[in-house]
Amino acid sequence: MTTARSECGFRGVCTAETLRLWVRQSERDQGKRAGLTSDEGERLKALERENRELRQDNEIFRKASAYFAKAELDRRFRGRADLQSSADRSVDLPRTRRAPAQS
Fold it and tell me: Count of CB atoms within 10 A of residue 36's CB?
C-alpha cells in the first residue's frame, strides 16, 4: 500500500491523502471498516437536501399565510368603515334592461 501511495503521489495523479481516503471508503463499502458506505452517504446527502428544501418551502408558506391573513383583516376592517360611510349616502344602482315579453 505504501508503494502504491508513493507512486500515485509521484505520478501526480492524486495525493497520498486522497488515495488513503479512497482506500478507507472502499473498506467501508466492503464492510471491513465501520462507517457510512458510499450509498448511505449519497442517500444522507439527498435527504438533507430534501429536508432543506422542505424547510424553505414551509418558510415561504408561513410568510404567505401571514401576508394573506393580514390582507384579510385589513379588508374586513375597511369593509366595516365603508359600510358605515355608505349608510350616509345614496347608492345609484345600474338600471337593467328587461327582457321583452314573450308571447
Answer: 13
Q: What is the pTM of this model?
A: 0.53
- Each residue's pLDDT tens digit, 39-50: 999 999 999 999
Core vs surface per residue 12-33: b (16+ CB within 10 A) or e: eeeeeeebeeeeebeebbeeee
C-alpha dist (Å) from residue 20 to 4, 42, 68: 10, 20, 56
Cell digits of residue 39: 450509498
DSSP for 25-76, written as a single string = HHHHHTTSSSS--HHHHHHHHHHHHHHHHHHHHHHHHHHHHHHHHHHHHHHH
Please tell me the distance from the alpha carbon of residue 24 to that of residue 41, in angstroms, as a whole number.
14
Cell of 81: 368603515
